[in-house]
Amino acid sequence: MNYKIKKLITNWRIIILVLFIISSLVAIHPTFNKGVAIRNVVTNSSASIAGIPQPQPNIQPVSRERIIAINNVPINSVEDYYKYVSTISSNRPMQIKTTTRLYKLITREKFGTIQLNETEEKNATQTVQRNATINGTIQIINETITKKVIVPKTKQISLGTEDLGLKIFEAPTTNLRKGLDLQGGTRVLLQPEVRLSEYDIGILLDNMKERLNVYGLSDLVIQEANDLPPPLGSGNQYIVVEIAGATEDEVKDLLSKQGKFEARIGNKTVFKGGQDIVYVARSANEAGIEPGGCGISGSQSFCRFRFAITLNQDAAQRQADATKDLDVVYDPVSKRNDYLSQKIELYLDDKKVDELSIAADLKGQAVTQISISGSGAGANQQEAIYNSLENMKRLQTILITGSLPVKLNIVKTDAISPVLGEGFVNNSILMSLLAIFAVAIVIGIRYRKFIIAIPILITMLSEVVILLGAAALIKWNIDLAAIAGILVAIGTGVDDQIVITDETLHGETSTIYNWKEKVKRAFSIIMLAYFTVVAAMFPLIFAGAGLLKGFAITTIIGVTIGVFITRPAYSAFVEIMLK
Amino acid sequence: MEEQNKEQQHNIEHKKVEPKKNIKQILLEFYDKKYKQLLIIPFLILFFSLAQIGYQVYKTGDFIKKDVSLKGGVTITIPYDKDVDTKQLEKLISSKFQENEVIVRTLSSAGAVAGIIVQADIDGNDNAKVKSLLHSIETSLKINLSEVNYGIETIGSSLGASFFRASLRALILAFILMGLVVFIYFRTFVPSLAVVIAAFSDMAFALAVVNILGVRVGTAGIAAFLMVIGYSVDTDILLTVRVLKRKEGTVMDRIISSIKTGMTETITAMVAVIVAMTVTHSDVIRQIMLILLIGLIADIFNTWIQNVGLLRMYVERKAKKGINI
Prior knowledge:
The complex is a heterodimer. Chain A is an alpha+beta fold. Chain A is built from 14 helices and 24 strands. Chain A has helices at about 1-10, 10-30, 45-50, 80-85, 180-185, 200-215, 250-255, 315-325, 380-400, 420-445, 450-475, 480-505, 515-535, 550-579, and strands spanning about 35-40, 65-70, 75, 95-100, 100-105, 110-135, 135-160, 165-170, 175-180, 185-190, 220-225, 235-245, 260-265, 270, 275-280, 285-295, 300-310, 330, 335-340, 345-350, 350-355, 370-380, 410-415, 475-480. In chain A, the strands form seven sheets. In chain A, strands 1, 2, 3, 4, 5 and 8 form a six-stranded antiparallel sheet that branches. In chain A, a hairpin with a 2-residue loop joins strand 16 (about 285-295) and strand 17 (about 300-310). Chain B is of the alpha+beta class. In chain B, about 70% of the residues lie in helices and about 10% in strands. Chain B has helices at about 1-15, 20-35, 35-40, 40-60, 70, 85-95, 125-140, 155-185, 190-215, 220-245, 250-280, 285-320, and strands spanning about 75-80, 100-110, 110-120, 150-155. Chain B has a four-stranded antiparallel sheet. In chain B, helix 8 runs antiparallel to helix 9 (about 190-215) and helix 10 (about 220-245) packs parallel to helix 12 (about 285-320). At the A-B interface, strand 23, helix 10, helix 12 and helix 13 of A face strand 1, strand 4, helix 8, helix 10 and helix 11 of B. Strand 23 of chain A pairs antiparallel with strand 4 of chain B.
């Protein structure tokens, strides 16, 4: 017996299986996290002003920042959070303790404007054009006049305490990402009115992400879903937007807004997205890190990026008009008079997203080619390069916004109830476990040997673990379709193990074959079955706007893990224990 | 020690089986000798399945009863834990939507009601209609929907139709690819064709039974039909590999050994499917499991009578030409 155990733990197939199980557990990273995790921070809310950062879109679920206590009251659940927050009044200091640090913020009062039945007189300024004689010639000049107008009187009233601006959810205890049907949220399927090229779709997706992020939605999936081209498929082009924890109305509202981009100097709009920006350079030789643009400042590295945009003549003229009266100011960094006194501010859907300094030589010049530069910092040069390229990409995306005049039709919206979602998770786990045990019992009855039933049970469970580990690693969302896929994968896995058991043990095959030959024969059946399942699932990846993609891919990954990792280990086990 | 146990077990089994042997032998003999006549059974079932599907097309214009995910419409899911008369509720809501089809089902877990699903083939982009549907649910159930976390899924009718076409193409493509893999491996026409016919018969049977049961099939159902192909092919491949590529024993011995292995596969799958079907909350998963279960039942006679019969005819014809398999 000892000899067999020794042989088992030194068998390379079993070692590989164990390694895969361990790394899967590491990837899944089960924890006993308590508290509530921050999903989104609303821009300009009291939470964002206090410095609570917007979570990174790709952050692993268990590494999300969690709220532990507010004003020293422990917060252990979503209910705790809302219960506490509903009691706080306006203009009070508050301490939010999270897993990373302690934030101090002041609650704000929410105001609403109501119209009264009275009217009042107000001064309004207006710019009018007038003919005037200057130096003997008649010219049109702009003149600002002040008018008295009568407007309805309005009054500001308090609407209670303003929301802190934190969107929170029950802290995840593993790195598994639950799909929408398991956690609740909204899925919208959009179809562009005209067929877009791969390049345009890429820009569009970046664009939508940027815009939705402006609204504090970072926990989202935006991806392209295409049917196969005719005659193999319908050739439809779709965009799937999935936002966890958002309501249908919120998402519809956001997506129906045309992406509006404006660049302002002072309060004058100099150019708008769509019509004014003719071209934004994005290729590697026109956009990137400035040559020699990296340096060290204190303990931080920083890099500068640069790319060119082309404006149309009108926008260039507006730019010239807006800058001609600005002062040139001293720049402490370059120690020269390099920049103008006002910055150019970028607005996306009327929210300020960025600002850029204007080079002194652009003052009053109607140039159409403008070079835009900026920087990024990091702990080392590599990080600085990465960050500045990220900043550059973001800026380019903002500048392009609106320049894709394509209408997106909403073809399908799903609002998935999170209450049912919570039930689904426990129910699906229960279902899978019961199905697995039922299979183990049937196997036990058939072979009347624990030594066969137990390894088959272990194999099934380890397949689930490895499959979930793979899902956590590639950031795949576990939804209902994926659960169905896991069941198929395990089901075919059991079929294969029965084949291995019968081919090797149950004397149907005569003794003229040695063990290796028997295993080889079992695998010839298994591999053929494997390829047919993959062949059958493959077309589903590209059908029906990708709604069954999760099912197909989970099945394919699952059977692949089975054939290459767990099946060899099972056959090695059977060989060592029963030979 | 272990060896001894095994032997003892073997003896006991032997003794138990002995008195039954006569009936078993008669059946086996019949199965062995009359395989050509037996072929009538699966082909008759296939014929009836296709006839049912034909009738369905004639009657409804579609070979399947589509649910809103393939037809277009609205699905509303409401968490609700009281008992409710779905038929009554269906009537109440239908009375306000005369020209539409309204279906009400309950979501249950372990016997208790967990929620209600209302499906209606109304235009999901028609806000007024959706609102009036929500309103009629509120009044019928006497609840305030804004207080519960309900879910709503809408799908346009043209999109539903395009999903259906896309899924159908995927299904056909899956068949072709699967057939291709089998052909490439066996490199013989008749046995490969027998595998494909068996998978096709399984699917036709599942489709016909689903139609008779009146199940409305959604996108998940299409996935389930694909899974039927997968499971069906497992046993057919097992049989064909054992009969064509193995040399020990007679052809009949190899078939019997395949039945032992194959039936174990099918029975374990069936047990798992039945467990999943009874435990799950989700309609989607229940539908997948139901279609799989029907496919697995079909697979029993389509593999062990139809595929075996065709394969034996092929082997015999080869034998006449002097090639022994």
